[in-house]
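ok so for the tutorial part 2 we go from a plain amino acid sequence to predicted structure tokens. step 1 is just haveing the sequence, like this:
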Amino acid sequence: MKLLLVLLLSFWFNILQFETGEYIHERNGHKYSIVLNQDSSFTYLRPAIINGTIKEAGKWRISQNSLILFDSVGFVNSKSKVEGQTVEGQKFVVIKFIDEKGSPLSDLEVGINEDNFYKRTDTQGIVKFEFTELKKRRKNQPKNTVEVIEFKTKRSETTVAVENIFNNKITVIKDYNPKKTYKLRERRVEIRNGDLVFKNPSGMNEQQEFVFIKK
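step 2 — the prediction. this is what the tokens look like for a chain of 215 residues:
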């Protein structure tokens, strides 16, 4: 009985020092924000890896001395892919475009490395670029590499990223109807002396721990 009373008092104490509103964490000039609304909804804003802000939203509830954040994570299941092959001393890149059924995609407008220089695929879905034709390079990008492929059709405009590949032939399969599925996610945020302690706040580093302070 005494143990139950202690647990209830401890639970009630944590609720008393928890308030809804905005909680802030600042790091390296970037702002992370958790907004907890009275209707049990939340918004979590965090900086993206390159530019912009990532917004996550869902519901929250209290469990013992922690805040549980519930939201959904989307997964894109697509047949689109890029295949490359390493070749020494190459001076050009050949790209072949096919649809999800394996048929060639002709008359696509194709660009490489965001160079604003485009060519069209032939009846076999093939386009060829000489590296001497390409001007724009990203910082520290290796010579004769393809980093970004852009292609445009009447149905869509898409960019495919390629990382550190020396290619003399690339096959791009374009899936026009990718399926997106969702999975329920639960994250635990500790309530500690009125602050929120969020472990792995980016979902990429399990050792990372941010303290969010009530604004």
